Amino acid sequence: MNYRHDFHAGNHSEVFKHALLCALIDHLQLKPKPICVVDTHAGSGLYDLESPEAMRTGEADRGIRLVYPKRTRALQRYLGVIEHFNPGGLKVYPGSPAIIRHLLRSEDRLVACELEARPAARLKEAMEGDGRVGVHQREGFAAVHAFVPPKERRGLVFLDPPFEKPDELSLAAAALNAAFRKWPTGTYALWYPITGRSQIAKFKKLLSEAVPTFCVEFLAYAKSREGLIGSGLVICNPPWQFEKNVHAICKALVPVFEECGSGYSTEWWVRPR
Question: Which chain positions carry the site (Interaction with substrate rRNA) (predicted)?
């Protein structure tokens, strides 16, 4: 599939992964030492939910617009971030670099990478003047190798590729395995769309077993339906007790999509030793 944020901003998979992204950053910030977040496929940062691209798919109507009124405790942090960008009503959706930047403390840092020239230019303009943020126009998987380990020695690498290539998960596994060798204590999170099981099973086999790895999948549309039915997040070196947040967030999301047969599952691919 080709996952372009302009068309899919605010859909159910964005809600799922960004709610967990907020929780990951909150966990890493429980300690006072600074963190660095490397966003490998950053996009342009902010998306107009009334743009022709967003209106063409209407996916936000079946995503953030359903979830936004549900101010449950587990979703409060994430929805508070969305509200920050929408003081006058839900009109825009922040991508991962905008969300991360909003959550940064003064001592934290964001390294945002985007290969495509147009969104990279938009992102640079949006982040201009913020010394905590560096924007780089470069390929995302190569960026993993280039920017780890960060000088802070604490933080997160967030991988959210567009899945334009059939071997995207194999490329992701190779990038992660190389990164583990350089920075074995870093936290890594990879988002993927659920379009079939074979590629996910292959990715699991390719990924190193040397790092604790937790996987969560959220199905918004378990009933028969064309298109993107759900997505997953693989978290390597998840913060201590992060699993509790995963369950709380997913349990809060399931009722929103209950009529569509929603559900979620979790699995430790490699348990902590």
Answer: 3
What is the per-residue pLDDT across 211-236, written as a single tens digit (0 to 9) for each?
A: 999 999 999 987 656 678 899 999 99
CA 71 to the chain's CA centroid: 21
**Would you call 48 a catalytic residue per the annotation?**
no
Its pTM surpasses 0.85: yes
Dihedrals phi, psi of 39, to nearest 5 degrees:
-105, 110
Query: What pLDDT, on the 0 to 100 scale, is given for residue 2?
Result: 44
Q: Which residues of the chain have pLDDT under 50?
A: 1-3
27 is in an annotated binding site: no
Catalytic residue among 26, 48, 160, 167: 160
Class of CATH domain 5-270: alpha beta
Say if residue 139 carries a ligand binding annotation. Answer: yes
